[in-house]
Design brief:
Length: 253
């Protein structure tokens, strides 16, 4: 499993393979609005994934319950005496290789898709309260709870799916999906379909991230984000500058 990060001031990623041949991958994307409060938007998302990594390494999780990984990490941060303030989306995917089962938990607008023989066979669904306002976990400053949007980790959208040898998995923040249509993502993934060569997978991840970054700053580009904005009555065009994180993997079962 390979990942590439560009402009990731608010995002982080962890991938870990346990002794039970389960693979866990996750991304978290901090909410940039916290800058106006003088809070680093990346600190909470980074901490959320680092604690999630510790939960995974300890083996204290059930492969079929990735939402519990997010919940454990969130509540540990919540109970910490030194609060790490901020908000973040999160997506965690667990592969139970011995049975070929993929389990996922998604809060907000990061997400994943599974590619098989050049076609998308499974994908996550965005969770949004309304346009451009995704579900999010939050640790707000004391006394500001009523002013800050905060969802419980139990609200995560959970899915499970049977995967096959050679399927491709991409887990990414919305900076990828808001700037690249499926066709562009698939084009890069198909080039390494079934490959377990880490260098080739890294190059494909780099290419996806770099294309998303370039188009994010193209003011004349009709991005997926701009199309969604128009569907919601907002006259928009151009890419969406945002944090970009890519995890790319070939599934072996």
């Amino acid at each position: 499993t390979v990942y590439d990060e560009l402009d990731v001031t608010e995002s982080t990623v962890v991938c870990h393979k346990t002794v039970t041949i389960d693979c866990v991958a996750g991304v978290a994307d901090g909410v940039g609005g916290w800058r106006a409060w003088g809070i680093d938007p990346g600190e909470f998302s980074h901490s959320l994934m680092r604690v999630s990594e510790r939960v995974v390494r300890s083996g204290r999780f059930a492969p079929s319950e990735p939402a519990a990984i997010i919940a454990r990490a969130y509540y540990e941060l919540l109970e910490n005496k030194t609060h790490i303030l901020g908000s973040s989306t999160a997506c965690v995917v667990v592969l139970q290789g011995d049975v070929g089962q993929l389990y996922s938990a998604n809060i907000g607008d990061s997400g994943f898709l599974v590619l098989r023989n050049g076609s998308v066979v499974h994908r996550s669904q965005e969770q949004q309260h309304y346009f451009n306002t995704p579900f999010q976990l939050s640790l707000p400053p004391p006394g500001t709870n009523a002013q800050v949007l905060s969802d419980r980790p139990e609200s995560a959208d959970t899915l499970e799916f049977l995967v096959k040898e050679g399927d491709m998995l991409i887990v990414a923040t919305d900076g990828v999906f808001d700037n690249l249509p499926d066709s562009m993502i698939i084009k890069e993934m198909v080039k390494v379909q079934g490959s377990t060569d880490l260098l080739l997978l890294q190059q494909a991840a780099n290419s996806i991230a770099q294309q998303a970054r370039k188009l994010a700053f193209d003011e004349d580009y009709m991005s997926p984000f701009a199309r969604n904005a128009r569907e919601n009555g907002i006259n928009a065009i151009g890419g969406k500058p945002d944090d970009i994180t890519v995890v790319l993997a070939t599934i072996t079962v």
